[in-house]
Amino acid sequence: ATAAYTDNVLDDFTTFGKEYVEDKYGIGEAPNTMDTVLDVGSEVTFYALEQFEDYPALLETIFGGSQRASIVAAAAGCSTGFATANAQTALSGWYLSMLLHKEQHSRLGFYGYDLQDQCGSTNVFSVRGDEGLPTELRGA
């Protein structure tokens, strides 16, 4: 439901990321490495956070800091996914964005929207969430 309340802000940030990826790597052509995650995730996150600084009223069109963190992270994750065509690196882009956002603003939002709840970097490439489903069945 979050995307329904973002007033095209998520669309703008994701489109920026898609165009960045398309120009630099090509869709789905980037290497599936942490360097790609750092490049694309950082570029999109910094672009998005700069937009909030350049246009202060932008934050008023969405539900404050909590939604800002999710929108920025979603755009970074989608853009990283566009680059690598890999869901795990897209998730790494999301988590990187949350960490960068926390460093820049010292918090992600309010009402218990804490970093430890939104950034699970240790879950990337983890089998823990797939207990009961052998890795052979999911193609790992």
Describe the structure.
This protein has 140 residues and is mainly alpha-helical. It has a single domain, classed as Methyl-coenzyme M reductase, alpha/beta subunit, C-terminal (Methyl-coenzyme M Reductase, Chain B, domain 2, Up-down Bundle), CATH 1.20.840. Helices cover 58% and strands 0% of the residues. The protein has five helices and no strands. Helix 2 (34-54) crosses helix 4 (87-105). The chain is globular, with a radius of gyration of 15 Å.
Task: Please render the helix and strand layout as text.
Elements: H1 9-24, H2 34-54, H3 64-84, H4 87-105, H5 115-118
Order of helices and strands: HHHHH
How much is the radius of gyration in Å? 15 Å
Regarding quaternary structure, how should these chains be classified?
A: single chain
* Total of domains: 1
Beta-strand proportion: under 5%
Mean model confidence by pLDDT: 80
Name of the CATH superfamily: Methyl-coenzyme M reductase, alpha/beta subunit, C-terminal
Summarize the structure.
With about 140 residues, this protein is an all-alpha fold. About 60% of the residues lie in helices and about 0% in strands.
